[in-house]
Amino acid sequence: GVPCVIDCPLGPALLFVKTSQGEEEGRRFYACSACRDRKDCNFFQWEDEKVSETRLAAREEYNRNHQPPFTHRQNVERYKNFVLLPLSKRRFCQECQQLLLPAEWEKHLDHQFLCDISTAQLKSPSQLLYPLENKKTNAQYLFADRSCQFLLDLIIDLGFRRVLSVGTPRLHEMIQSKASQEDFRVRSLLLDIDFRYSQFYTEDEFCHYNMFNHYFFGGEAARETCRKFLYQDSGERVIMVTDPPFGGLVEALASSFKKLMAMWKETEKEGHNNQEMPVFWIFPYFFESRILEFFPSFSMMDYQVDYDNHALYKHGKTGRRQSPVRIFTNLTPSMIVLPVEEGYRFCTICQRYVSSGNQHCEICNSCTSKDGRRWKHCVLCKKCVKPSWFHCNNCNCCALQNHTCEKTDAVCFVCGKAGHKRSTCPSLSHT
Ligand code: SAH
Ligand code: ZN
Ligand code: ZN
Ligand code: ZN
Ligand code: ZN
Question: Which keywords, in A-to-Z order, does the entry hold (predicted)?
Fold first, then answer.
């Protein structure tokens, strides 16, 4: 429920709360839903703030200047003309990240450009475009081919025919290029904030979308495209796959995904009365509790999703760091078959595939490792913990050996003494 006068170029703003120390209730403000870095989007407004006419006008001007040079419709037309050109006339400006028609060459002469853009290149725009690198929220981490292929094979084996690709351009692209081959029945619709993709896909294949505020830039027509896509075959055999930026706000994402799932649910014919639209939400394992808070029906799979351009998170066999990124899904875990040749095995008690290092703990009665390493059970904590942790009697829980003990370090908020927190302050104990 955010008034549209305070839209930024990326759609309706979100309401945030700023709390400073000692303050009971924070002051509420609107900010851009997608860019949490002020440098990328300067939109900011206190909730109770009156905005002057001049500032509104300035904001409108700012929004106008931050619109893309062509509309999606125009880009589709341009693409049609582009593919008619002989190879020698197909250029892509790397600076403007734009396919160029010969009449436009002049304007880009002092820019770096690529020549002889082949059909194969047009079919893999994620290779042609450079990955966006905004550190906070908009960084693009592209699936390694192995992981992308695994996801697609899994989707096909599970019998899905349509994939709503939310922030997964590389998966979309893999599906699109196979769709031109015979016998390949899977279709995909890409929803992404990266408007550069509108140069390569029609309005039935790509919607410019902000997954932090469920905003379709193309208005009702785009929303309808998405709805139609979900409605085909009474909504059967469709799955949503999403790989949001990790800096993203889980709450905002969950709210948008619930809206997409609700859109699917409206298709409701006889079949899926109490069902949810199947979802793969790809996200780091340390967000597990946050995701489950919003989606109790989800569970986390052990599969480690790998990326091409994520230096830290390459598939690690020896020494190299392993990817912390996992698949969260509302499908029955036993259906998610993980590749045995990569060391995953089926735990018959947990009824799911787990990492090779993930040992079934008899006491927890579950395969407890989250990161793929073998975890150990702590009888005092009554749970399994990371192999590098030890039980600290001071903190009364497990922690890294060289941690600084919380209880002896911190000062109580109420009495100012060290050794306990506000909740256990002895000066409050008899009130
Ligand atoms: N691994 C995926 C890419 C994930 S990177 C793949 O290879 O296909 C995150 C993706 O989400 C990027 O494509 C990025 O453009 C998109 N994205 C980032 N912020 C977004 C937003 N607010 N709304 C919609 N998509 C967004
Ligand atoms: Zn913005
Ligand atoms: Zn198990
Ligand atoms: Zn255990
Ligand atoms: Zn412990």
Answer: Cytoplasm, Metal-binding, Methyltransferase, S-adenosyl-L-methionine, Transferase, Zinc, Zinc-finger
Q: How many domains does the chain have?
A: 3
Q: Residue 198 carries which side chain, given as an amino acid letter?
A: S
Are 163 and 28 members of one domain? no
- Beta-carbon contacts of 395 under 8 Å, excluding residues fewer than 6 positions away, are 403, 405, 406, 407
pLDDT in tens, 148-189: 999 999 999 999 999 999 999 999 999 999 887 778 889 999
pLDDT at residue 4 in the model: 33
In a domain, 321, yes or no: yes
pTM of the predicted model as reported, rounded to 2 decimal places:
0.85
Per-residue pLDDT at 215: 92
The pLDDT of residue 10 is above 70: no
Residues 29 and 172 in one domain: no
Inter-CA distances, 276 with 8, 88, 259, 301, 335, Å: 32, 50, 12, 18, 16
The alpha carbon of 77 is separated from its chain's Cα centroid by a whole number of angstroms, namely 30
Answer yes or no: is the C-beta of 173 below 6 A from any ligand 1 atom. no
User: What's the confidence (pLDDT) of residue 20?
Assistant: 63
Q: Is the distance from the beta carbon of residue 194 to the nearest atom of ligand 1 less than 6 Å? A: yes
For residues 185 and 205, give the distance between their C-alpha atoms in angstroms, rounded to a whole number.
15
Q: Are residues 231 and 251 in the same domain?
A: yes
One domain, residues 82 and 187: no
Which residues does residue 316 pair with via DSSP β-bridges, in sequence order? none
Spell out which residues have Cβ within 5 A of ligand 3, the ion. Answer: 347, 349-350, 360, 367
User: Does any domain span residue 412?
Assistant: no
Residues 80 and 190 in one domain: no
Percent of the chain residues past pLDDT 90, beyond the cut: 61
140 lines ligand 1 (CB under 6 A): yes
Q: Are residues 41 and 94 in the same domain?
A: no
Shared domain for 86 and 161, answered yes or no, is: no
Compare 397 and 320 and report the one with higher pLDDT.
Answer: 397
Beta bridge partners of 11: 8
**In a mutational test of the pocket of ligand 1, which residue from 165, 194, 242, 310 has the highest number of ligand atoms less than 8 Å from its CB?**
194
Inside any domain, residue 370? no
Asked if residue 398 is part of any domain, the answer here is: no
Domain around 102: 72-117
The residue nearest atom 15 of ligand 1, judged by CA position, is 194
